[in-house]
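Quick one, T. Sequence first:
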Amino acid sequence: MTTIDKSNFIQAFKNVFSNIDAEHFDMNQNRADFENWDSLTHMQLVSEIETAYGITFEMDEIVDINTPQDLMTLVEKKKSTS
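Structure tokens:
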């Protein structure tokens, strides 16, 4: 499996959630714990990650993203098969 640079990954989160603290970023934090992580920002985050890594997610993959780690694992999986 491909390993993704965590700092670039966190930057994508910062582009969507301006109040992210990179030093204390918790990859296992549930989306309910993020301020303003609703359906719209979920799609903005997905789009940001797709653009950053040159990948495309399927809808069934998108709905299963509940933590940053879920998203990181999905990116690594997509990058390793591309």
